Amino acid sequence: MQEIEKITYSTEWYDTLVSDCKTIIDKAKTDIGVRLLRAKWNLGDKIVPNYNRFERAEYGNKTQKDFAKELELKQQEISNVIRFRKKIGDNFDLWLESTDISVLSWYNIVHGWLPKKKRNHPQIIEFSITPKFSDNVIQTDIQNGLDYVSENSVDLILTDPPYAEASLDLWSELGKFAAYSLKPSKLLVSYSGKAFLPEVYKRLSEHLQYIWTIALVHTDNKRTCYHALHIFERWKPILIFAKPPFTPNEYFEDVVKGAGREKELHAHAQAETEAEHIITQFTKENHFVIDPFCGSGTVLVAAHKLNRKFLGFDIDAEAIKTSLWRLQNEKNL
Questions:
Q1: What confidence score (pLDDT) does residue 96 get?
Q2: pLDDT at 263 over 80
Q3: Distance between CA atoms of 307 and 311, rounded to whole angstroms?
Q4: What span, in angstroms and rounded, lies between the C-alpha atoms of 325 and 330?
Q5: How far is CA 177 from CA 146, 171, 296, in A?
Q6: What are the residues whose beta carbons fall under 8 Å from the beta carbon of 143, sequence distance 6 or more?
Q7: C-alpha of 172 from chain center
Q8: Rounded mean pLDDT of the chain?
Q9: Contact yes or no for 258/220 (Cβ under 8 A)
Q10: Each residue of 169-196: pLDDT tens digit?
Q11: Measured between alpha carbons, how far is 310 from 301 in angstroms, rounded to an integer?
């Protein structure tokens, strides 16, 4: 009796799909704001072309249930991602820039698909982007930012550069930028990490006059850990440098109570109330404030609320979009 040949079907498509989706989800766990929307769209963009292959013998009889389990999602959450991808269409950027959504249910559109992602996003956020603030928020690096600023024109630089060792050169560039753009006696006020603080002081001092270091004390009972030295961190330095010659004005406290974490729109965002405090302390109405590492736009929003002129740079296109969106839709502006 002739033996019947057993036919096997390749499941390479499935293995690739699972791997690609897991990569998107893992990266998205540190994403916030517009990036998180894009991640959801990217996930749907991977799933949609393959979804009709499930439950079919010629594609290995892979089930939707098993697929969801591999991603640590429910089938309903997979369906949510697919609907989002189909609703947005083939071009996420075009949708983001051209669609005027008067009210966006941010919670519903972001949550319910990303495992172990529990962030306190606002339930409802006004969402639309127009050119209203396009001259105030520019996608560029700090070196090219000089093209957008006149010499001796800025009253305050308030910023939060990257803290990693690999980013130390940016502190040198920040010093150069401040030395060129600040008016004499005006200040650079910058958040900083502590691991490479001596090098940060050195690089900024090559171009500016060191004034003081403020201690921003964390008051929300949350701490960060510097594992290399087994340290629980309870405060953060805020460095103050001036373009010489420096003339002291009003007295200021060198200890500031932190307002708590506000990381919903950007992973490294600082609290808006802290920015308002610093801007009020060191500037007056109609003064010019710049943040050359603006992230989600916290400094820009605070400056705008306080009737200061403002300008922000960032190399990240998603950060620029988030800043523009936030400026246009922030309440009380």
A1: 72
A2: no
A3: 13
A4: 8
A5: 7, 10, 21
A6: 173, 177
A7: 22
A8: 82
A9: yes
A10: 999 999 999 999 999 999 999 999 999 9
A11: 9
Q: What is the pLDDT of residue 275?
A: 94
Top-confidence residue, 125 or 34: 34
Convert the pLDDT of each residue in 53-94 to its tens digit: 888 877 888 888 888 888 888 888 888 888 888 888 898 888
- Can you give the pTM of this predicted structure? 0.64
Residues 205-210: contacts with CB under 8 Å, at least 24 apart = 205/175, 205/241, 206/172, 206/175, 207/175, 207/176, 207/178, 207/179, 208/175, 208/178, 208/179, 208/241, 208/242, 208/243, 208/244, 209/241, 209/242, 209/243, 209/244, 209/245, 209/246, 210/240, 210/241
How far, rounded to the nearest angstrom, does the alpha carbon of residue 285 sit from its chain's CA centroid?
27
Query: Which residues make up the CATH 3.40.50.150 domain(s) of the chain?
Result: 132-329
Dist CA 208 CA 176 (whole Å): 8
Strands 137-139 and 309-314 turn out to be parallel
Helices (H) and strands (E) in the chain, counts: 12, 12
Backbone angles phi, psi at 296, to 5 degrees: -85, 5
Q: Are 220 and 189 within 8 A, CB to CB?
A: no
Q: Which fold has domain 132-329?
A: Rossmann fold (3.40.50)
